[in-house]
Amino acid sequence: MSQIQDKKPAQGETGRSGNYQPVNLSLQAAGDSRGKRPKAYAQVAQSIRRQVLTGGLAKGERLPPERELADAFGVSRMVVREAIRALESDGLLQVRPGAGGGSFVTHDFDKPLGASINNLLAGGAITLDNLFELRLMLEAPAAAMAAVRGRRADIEDLARVVEQADDLADDSEALRAANLEFHRRLVALAGNPLLSSLCETVLAILVKSLQGRLNVELSRRVLEYHHHIVGALLERRAEDARRLTAQDLEQLHQRYNKMGIRVDVNPEAAAPAAGGREIS
Amino acid sequence: MSQIQDKKPAQGETGRSGNYQPVNLSLQAAGDSRGKRPKAYAQVAQSIRRQVLTGGLAKGERLPPERELADAFGVSRMVVREAIRALESDGLLQVRPGAGGGSFVTHDFDKPLGASINNLLAGGAITLDNLFELRLMLEAPAAAMAAVRGRRADIEDLARVVEQADDLADDSEALRAANLEFHRRLVALAGNPLLSSLCETVLAILVKSLQGRLNVELSRRVLEYHHHIVGALLERRAEDARRLTAQDLEQLHQRYNKMGIRVDVNPEAAAPAAGGREIS
DNA sequence: ATATATATAATGGTTAGACCAAAGGTTAGA
DNA sequence: TCTAACCTTTGGTCTAACCATTATATATAT
Description:
Chain A has 280 residues and is mainly alpha-helical. Chain A has helices spanning 40-53, 66-73, 77-89, 110-122, 128-149, 152-166, 172-189, 193-210, 216-234, 238-259; strands at residues 93-96, 102-105.
């Protein structure tokens, strides 16, 4: 009875238990093609992964409780938990304890993306300069693409973001946030979600290593560029948009280097920082 | 006794057990800063992650067996396993069963990177065109950078790769491999490991969706470009290198589209395909 | 002696059932 | 009506086995 199989639960009188979507459970072999014994947790993970990605389980929906999944898949609860742990790491699930809790479908792919880059940094495989360079390679062309593809209305929204930032001259934190929002939206205008994801991730890491060391003076200087960039976008001057964005980022990069900012090399990757409980 | 603590094992007469590096074990709280109870498996994962990334555990080294880790951390084996599962998903560990087996430190960060992008594709959040576009944005500038930064010797190596490919006119598979190798090395010349990682990942996904549908005619046509690119690199003509690479990739992209190739949208992410065991 | 088969031991993979802890819902009391 | 005590659901953890895989050593046959 080591064979893993799906005991599709009598899909009928579940009247009592669930408010979660009654899920289609089934297992396929997953693992190396080389006749290796497929590991149960890999199969379960694979099965759930498929359901999540093919829309069988919509974003935000809750999976059945671990115990029921274990029953349904015909495996022990631990196998299910290991599968969930892997999926959680992949950014496909988010788990919450307690009564209202459970495993919820999410699409947080930026998380593993960021974790990987963080790991590369922490492991010394890449430098902060590498990150800045990548950002430049992504955002400058993105600005050009935005000038070509961006919808008028969206560009005007972007313009408003910049204008609102003008009024925040005194609030350093808000100004910084507004500038970030600008870059986020600018990249979004390029219309390539993959590009957006990457930029978002890179930006998040860079921002983290800033940690409020960005002074108002620099922020306003940056804002200056943003005005020009918006102008270029509005007039569809792609090459200008590209160049201005590149200058904006290069200037920022130089500031970083002058300030001798080192990356926040906490090997946290996915996990945020310290909780409340002290440990021996 | 719910407190998690490190019972650092008497680091002495382990003469019998280990050929693995005697690891420094210790746990910190990990989790949300908001006084939430830190989950044991997250703490263990965090602790190991730190050791791996800060070099306390070198690449290729083996972790102590799960049972010993559990002892050392003062938790159950299950907690350790869940932690390992997450780290495996992060590309930090690779686990092998059996006698010679164990959990080995690896730095396979391309794996989660690729998994994320695969998930985005499978979930319909991005398209194959988005991928091609990103590749173009990365590789074309990379070629320009290579022309500037690439060491003479490395460029000459690259030239040899192209020349050797000339002799493979008949072997479609080998020719394809040689062309891939060209792009890989080209990007490496740019001297940005992060860029290399990304390109590697994107390329791998694109290649997978090709699956031998690339005919010899197209391969040779591509090879033509490679010759020109190498020429540009040797003479440090950065802009030419950029333009030629862009043309090379755009041509390939158009071919893809004409052939109506759809991405291999198997929600496999990290896990390769079917094993030998049938299920239910 | 060499090669092949077989036992041994180390280690991950899995099971079973129990109990703890968090968090939403319900109900009783003020 | 509001509050506080319970109750239930669900994830988190523990224990103690046993199964499966594989490298290594040992024995056996050639």
